[in-house]
Amino acid sequence: MLPSMMLGSSLFIDKTQKAKKYPMSLVSEGSVSKAVSVGLYKSLLLARRSEEYIVKHYPENQMRSPMHMSMGQEFVSVAVCSALEGKADVFASYRSHAAFLAQTHDTDMFFAELYGRTSGTGEGKGGSMHLAAPDRGHLLSSGVVATQIPVAVGAAFANARLKTGRTAVAFFGDGATDAGVFWESMNSASLFRLPVMFVCEDNGFAVDTPRAARHAFESLADAVRPFGCEVYEDDSGDVESVYLLTRRAAETAHRERKPAFLNIKCCRFLEHVGTGEDWHWGYRDKDDTVREWIARDAVTAQRKRLLDCGIEERDITAIEEEIETTVRRSGERAAAAPIPAPERLFAGVFHAKA
Ligand SMILES: Cc1ncc(C[n+]2csc(CCOP(=O)(O)OP(=O)(O)O)c2C)c(N)n1
Ligand SMILES: [Mg+2]
To answer: Which is the closest atom of ligand 1 to the Cα of 143?
Structure first.
């Protein structure tokens, strides 16, 4: 367990390190309203506090699912789902906590699934890697790297045919771009000019293997460009930057009938799978990671932004208390809920023939 995490995101900040100046996003024009800034903070915090709850309670062994934590990367899916204002059809990887919560805000279904309870998204049989709430716009999460990407392309095809105006969004890691199906999906979507957003949560590693050891090309964005889709890059680590980028990308995708590829640099704070840290593995340098990413954590930065734009400390604290209460209540309700009965074991597992 990481006691520091229980006390909130401010403890991620290494106050001895001066934050480096980072190139801001390529898209710096535009701004967001105060209401959107607050909404983004709430959404970030919901994901962060939910995962802190997992870190705290996982050792009780009531949540039996393997956990691929979003912590540190939440700003990507929070920005994208907020920017699409409920008009996204989300297809996520196994690292789906933040995407699920950003899209549904439903901590009850979320925790029930992690606790393996009947009230969970998959009656408690899917676990952390298979969160899904199709009627809420989170179509699926997949444990098999890259497999959600072609399914998102299929959904985009349906959306285009049915003129729904919705945007299919595939969230995936940089490791998924090592898979052939990523390139096939990119080709089909570009060829058929489909309204799909490929969002690469680029944390630089597939488990412990860095990008440079896997890719023959230097820039993923440059490798994707020849397909003719719109390509966007962001290394700001900032939720509002990615929010503005997504708005522009979605608008262009629908207007020009072209898919969008978003390469968003981010950092996974915890180990690849599990609720602890992994600095002892030695594949990444703790000081560098703290300096480059943890010290400019998006959750902390967004809180500061709210203060800077005149929102009172007590109003922010009230938001935080409300979110903490929501998370705790959902966790407690889930722990007390029933587990599926044996006769439900195969229900929903296989396609029922009509
Ligand atoms: C087809 C397939 N191959 C291998 C694995 C094992 N595996 C799980 S996660 C992972 C790394 C994926 O890295 P990335 O796509 O960058 O996502 P991240 O975990 O960094 O979010 C691998 C190889 C798998 N789940 N599916
Ligand atoms: Mg990765």
So the answer is: 25
Per-residue pLDDT of 90-126, as tens digits, reads: 999 999 999 999 999 999 999 999 999 999 999 999 9
**323 Cα to the center of ligand 1, angstroms:** 31
Q: Kindly state whether residue 345 falls inside one of the protein's structural domains.
A: no
Question: What are the percentages of helix, strand and coil residues in the chain, rounded to 5?
Answer: 50, 10, 35
> Is the distance from the beta carbon of residue 81 to the nearest atom of ligand 1 less than 6 Å?
no
Ligand 1 contact via 176 beta carbon (within 6 Å): yes
- Give per-residue pLDDT as tens, 211-225: 999 999 999 999 999
pLDDT at residue 30, rounded to an integer: 73
In a domain, 136, yes or no: yes
Number of domains in the chain: 1
Where in the sequence is the domain holding 123, given as residue range(s)?
A: 34-337
d(CA 77, CA 104): 12
174 lines ligand 1 (CB under 6 A): yes
User: Which residue lies with its CA nearest to atom 5 of ligand 1?
Assistant: 145
The string of DSSP letters for 64-82 reads: -S--B--TTTHHHHHHHHH
pLDDT in tens, 118-153: 999 999 999 999 999 999 999 999 999 999 999 999
Residue 160 has a CB neighbour count (10 Å cut-off) of 19
Looking at the CA of residue 201, tell me the nearest atom of ligand 1: 21
pTM for this structure?
A: 0.91
Residue 140 is assigned to a structural domain of this protein: yes
* Ligand 1 proximity of 205 Cβ (cutoff 6 Å): yes
Is residue 15 included in any domain, yes or no?
Answer: no
CATH assignment at residue 126: 3.40.50.970
